[in-house]
Amino acid sequence: MSRPDRFTGKAAFVTGAASGIGRATAVAFAREGARVAILDLSVDALRPTTDAIRALGGEVLVLACDVSVPEQVEAAVASTVAAFGRLDMAFNNAGVENKAAPLAEIGLDEWDRILDINLRGTFLCMKHEIAQMLRQGGGVVVNTSSGAGIRGVAGGASYAASKHAIIGLTKSAALDYATSNIRVNAVLPGNIETPMMDRFTGGDIQKAIDLEPVGRLGRPEEIAEAVLWMSSDLGAFVTGAAISVDGGWSL
User: Fold this and answer.
1) Which end of the chain has less neighbouring CB within 10 Å, N or C?
2) In this model, does residue 111 exceed pLDDT 80?
3) Which of 159, 177, 200, 249 is catalytic?
4) Which ranges of the chain would DSSP assign to H, the alpha helix?
5) How far apart are CA 212 and CA 4, in angstroms?
6) Is residue 177 flagged as an active site residue?
């Protein structure tokens, strides 16, 4: 249920916000009163998200950023603080899927591409977000892992490795900052109706539906609801958690 003033006066930072889960979460934050910095590789790609937030009367900062580049991430966090005065909630969602292949056939360039964006990018964002949260006295970080973060995926070793590592990163950071009023959690989506799922299945979405015990794909908005709960006072006693929102896929 939407609560229009839950995040009034707060600032959110959402990566991978051009589509899918990132877009849904950025719009949900804005709907509930947050000022939102949205990031993706290009400003043009972010236009639909920007328009959706402005249609709600929300305040949005649009930033082009490659999360694997340290200088760009540092600048994006600094721009957010310059615009909004603070950074209360960060949703590190930017990520890419692998080209399906058994492990021995994965090229080093492809391995590096997945780990650079999914893992290095999450680390860099956390590094600069948490530094700001320490300066202001607290905040909440939510990272996107995956059901592939707690089980193996045939043909997906690089993706699964990156998503397993994000859980370890999340749990370790949660312990690092547990006494600093900074909570760090991860959301683990299952098979969700997103452009990434279209690409991964080659457009044969039924393949993904057949893997879901509940018999359907999840909606990006359902992941957004979990992220907002973790980011709100309702989740105040939750840190270091890896919460599956996957229709039972990872069971």
Assistant:
1) N
2) yes
3) 159
4) 20-31, 47-55, 70-84, 108-115, 121-136, 157-176, 195-201, 205-210, 220-231
5) 32
6) no
Structure tokens at 12: 């959110």
pLDDT reported for residue 210? 82
Give 106-174 as a DSSP string: --HHHHHHHHIIIIIHHHHHHHHHHHHHHHHT-EEEEEE--GGGSS--TTBHHHHHHHHHHHHHHHHHH
State pTM to two decimals: 0.94
Interacting residues of 199 by C-beta distance below 8 A, sequence separation 6+: 97
Overall average pLDDT of the 198-209 stretch: 72
Tokens matching residue 174: 């949660």
For residue 90 the two structure tokens come to 């960060």
What type of residue sits at position 219?
A: R
pLDDT exceeding 70 applies to what percent of the chain?
98
DSSP-derived pairing of the beta strands 139-144 and 11-15: unpaired
Q: Which residue bears the tokens 């707060």?
A: 10
In one-letter notation, the amino acid at residue 186 is: A
Q: HSE (CB half, 13 Å, CA atoms) of 92?
A: 33
With a cut of 60, say whether residue 1 has pLDDT above it. Answer: no
Q: Which domains, and CATH codes, for the chain?
A: 11-236 (3.40.50.720)
Q: How many residues does the chain have?
A: 251
pLDDT at 20 over 90: yes
Site of tokens 């849904």: 24
